[in-house]
Amino acid sequence: GAVVSQHPSWVICKSGTSVKIECRSLDFQATTMFWYRQFPKQSLMLMATSNEGSKATYEQGVEKDKFLINHASLTLSTLTVTSAHPEDSSFYICSARDKSAGNYGYTFGSGTRLTVV
Amino acid sequence: AQSVTQLGSHVSVSEGALVLLRCNYSSSVPPYLFWYVQYPNQGLQLLLKYTSAATLVKGINGFEAEFKKSETSFHLTKPSAHMSDAAEYFCAVIRGGATNKLIFGTGTLLAVQP
Fold first, then answer.
1. Which of A61, B45, B87, B109 is surrounded by the fewest CB atoms within 10 Å?
2. Residue A72 region, left (φ>0) first, then alpha (ψ -120 to 50), else beta?
3. Per mean pLDDT, which range of A5-14, A102-111, B56-65 is the poorest?
4. What is the pLDDT of residues B69-92, one digit of tens each?
5. CA-wise closest residue to B51 among B71, B35, B70
């Protein structure tokens, strides 16, 4: 089945530094990737949608200069948290839509636990 | 806009008992609905999805859900709970448009008591 590899699975960084999270579709082409943020014991909140080769579309209230998304190829999307602060600490999850599965084949990465100290 | 509401943030059942997790949707067009399971510190695994075919959808691990238009519901059930079913469960709906975003409910934490 479709697999999405997300790295790193956890990261600790100092306040003010930047962190990059990668999401790769291993055996399918992902025309669209989604990035979610999940606070403890809460639901997944959609942050942005990225299409290969074009700029990401951010949800209302999400700072695009803070959360940089790049979708350079059909198998790779990255989320960079710039100048991270403790309030950015969260669980980030990517999701890729499998083109061959039609519009409803969503596969999720295993998530990245970000802790900013 | 399409949305889903999950009633009950916590549900506790005994091992072997029926599992019922509730999800109601709001949509002006025929919705596409999903149930996902999440184990601690992991991503989401698809249990099942409804895409306007059969109203009774069977998924993995013995779960199933029934789409009821009259009740705008898509409740998840399993006849007999297993300890390994303890996890967080999310109902989701596609919010239409060019990119078909997947929007999640608030989640239900299922506890299974021995």
1. A61
2. alpha
3. A102-111
4. 999 999 999 999 999 999 999 999
5. B35
Is any Cβ of chain B less than 8 angstroms from the Cβ of A57? yes
- Write down the mean pLDDT value for chain B: 91
> What confidence tier does A102 reach under pLDDT thresholds 50, 70, 90?
low
Pairing of strands A106-108, A90-98: antiparallel
Q: Which residues of A touch B100 (CB under 8 A)?
A: 32, 97, 103-104
Mean pLDDT of chain A: 91
Q: Residue B97: which of B8, B34, B47, B29 has the closest Cα?
A: B29
Q: Which residue of B has its CA nearest to A31?
A: B99
Token digits of residue B69: 């238009």
Quick one: how far is CA B41 from the chain centroid? 19
Q: Rounded to whole angstroms, what are the CA distances from B53 to B30, B34, B50, B66, B103?
A: 11, 13, 7, 11, 21
Tokens of A65: 């200069």
| DSSP letter assigned to residue A59 | P
Are A94 and A4 a contacting pair, CB within 8 Å? yes
**Residue A101 confidence (pLDDT):** 67
Written as six digits, the tokens of A14 are 């100092």
Tokens 């029934």, residue? B66
d(CA A37, CA A44): 6
Given an 8 Å threshold on Cβ–Cβ distance, is B100 in contact with A108?
Answer: no
Q: What is the mean pLDDT of residues B2-22?
A: 95
